[in-house]
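> tool_call: predict_assembly(chains=two)
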Amino acid sequence: MEPSSSKPVSSSSWETGIEVGDATFPRGFWAYAWEGGPRLRMALLVSDRPATVAGRFTVNAAQAAPVQLCRRLVAGGVSQAAVINAGNANALTGAQGRADAERMQQLCGQALGIEPATVAVASTGVIGVPLPMAEIEAGIHYLAERYQMGAPSEGEKAARAILTTDTRPKTGALTVSLSGGTVRIGYMAKGSGMIHPGMATMLVFLTTDAAVAPAVLDRLVGEAVDASFHALSVDGDMSTNDTVLCWANGASGVVVEQAEDVQAFGAALTRLAQVAARQIAADGEGATHLITARVRGAQTVADARQKARAIIASALVKTAVYGRDPNWGRVLAAVGASGLPWDPARASLWMNGLCLYNQGVPLPFDEAEAKARMAAFEVVFEVALGEGEAEAEAWGCDLTEGYVDINAHYRT
Amino acid sequence: MEPSSSKPVSSSSWETGIEVGDATFPRGFWAYAWEGGPRLRMALLVSDRPATVAGRFTVNAAQAAPVQLCRRLVAGGVSQAAVINAGNANALTGAQGRADAERMQQLCGQALGIEPATVAVASTGVIGVPLPMAEIEAGIHYLAERYQMGAPSEGEKAARAILTTDTRPKTGALTVSLSGGTVRIGYMAKGSGMIHPGMATMLVFLTTDAAVAPAVLDRLVGEAVDASFHALSVDGDMSTNDTVLCWANGASGVVVEQAEDVQAFGAALTRLAQVAARQIAADGEGATHLITARVRGAQTVADARQKARAIIASALVKTAVYGRDPNWGRVLAAVGASGLPWDPARASLWMNGLCLYNQGVPLPFDEAEAKARMAAFEVVFEVALGEGEAEAEAWGCDLTEGYVDINAHYRT
């Protein structure tokens, strides 16, 4: 019997050590959702106290107005809330767009009774259309009122409110035992198309109740992003709106300061970011397979990562996976096209554990066996370069008629 | 009534100044086709005298055996023939592949009675499978015999024999008036998928009866390739086998030497290469539209070209064109993602002549009018950067369910 390649219902079926939880799993974080607008949905994420904040953003030269705003926020290092809308990216909207993003920040800060300059703003959706500000205002007032009346937190519902073409919410959480006690990390994320190294229309909101100094948090977030969202591609397009923000509010009373604690906390943050990246890849527009590229035996991690990215970014690899075609030549051709030196004569390749190419020599293989292995939801290409000890992974998804249909007929 | 977007039957309906002709249009060139193999088709291109040769090749680190051979040939500067096969790329085939490519060269030189080292070899098709050498030998003997018996030249049939997923042969020719008389340039080409800047599974054979010194020919071919095949993308994948070769056999008796002649000849070569690039883009796998990106007002040609390439390489632009969705935000987001600095506030955008974005401000437009303009086979995005005087074009095609179908189920 052929195994089903249908998507897993949640991350927990293919990730271990990850808790069922979201951005409100750490202490002191609250989230609410507003689905009242005809053209928008909104979410509010609030910490009950000011938090240290760090972030990473799209490298697209056309940075959306909310991204420009968040860059300034992160430079300040302190944030207490985020107001997020899906349906309109507020990108390529010029001076009006910048004024609208600032007005979102002001309105939200005033409604919550906190310093407006500590409010982050994130938007995703159609490009080049002015924000419907009447809806934005209505949403902000509703969301702030819910928080102030002490309504039950809606972490899962907020994670749904920020989706666009995503088919399911993306959340996760874990706990980390440190020398001073236990801390919690959680996230909510969205992302489905326009996903590529350099980030994507991808919004990721990480929270923790650990207390972390701004410079340390910034470094750890940078490392986590490099090993996760920068190793992710759905379609090779890079969004104007990518945003990863991470708040550390200290509500656990545990300070991340000693070297071992910093390392353990950083490793957990990276691990959770990788889970989020895999969730995003697995829910790529039209996807029927998650593709993992693992490149090992490289001289440097950067070399391994660039080659792994080249594999998961290849349209020919993506369509071969969709067709369950063990067409390994496309995988190695993609490695060759990565822009870095490479010697195919020293390389070997496995597909879901089956060796297809061994130190420069194509191996005969059982086509039916190979096709059966590709029926798994996750298809792993493992390339051993034979040049060193470094390794890296990257994640993507297959390219299907579903992707074409969504993007030919949906105005993103 | 909505105009049809069906493909033009030949280049001549959308290119002016191009003759009906192929690689045998210049004097002294002959071509033959062999379609007798179950797994291969082959073509032979011969000059009746040794010719100056120049070439450009894939930058993929995994260079197919025939590419390695042609690099050595071009370094020598002299060639009299090319033997070409479609159906098997002889790529990632290791030492056996190199020996097979050399044997093709040897067999062809011996059968033609010319110096084997002057024979070029090109292959396209499936990667990682050894060449069926018995078929190769049969084909070479048939083809050489046809030439030696003085059989009528088969330029068009040869252009068909080298195709893979292409739906039609790609040929063109033109004449150039120089101070010493008229010279002819012609080509045959193939290419449909795995097409991207840095070249593609793209084989292009240019011929001319002009006499051109090796160093001059090399420079002119390099300029022509930069302005044509390096500004072309079908799917972002870069082949192991891309080859552009250009032979100048001097059979016209006209020498390209004086500065004005070199310039006129080079401009004609570039023009013809651009026609070939547009033919390849228009016949991209599954394509229903040719996409032209014209970027002007740049500070340098390189800047304009990289931004134009970013537009035609974007999966979101490609799917929007397929859906006839005037989603201009995707076009500008692609410009922003090109990796180069850019100020959207100074830019303007036209789509088939309709201005959608003017100096940083989105313009209201008639959606029905915009959609109607996108019904044309060719969709032109013109971006004015407002930064300088340089400009460049790039060509691609839309991304359709047809592309996915071909590549999920065809073993390339």
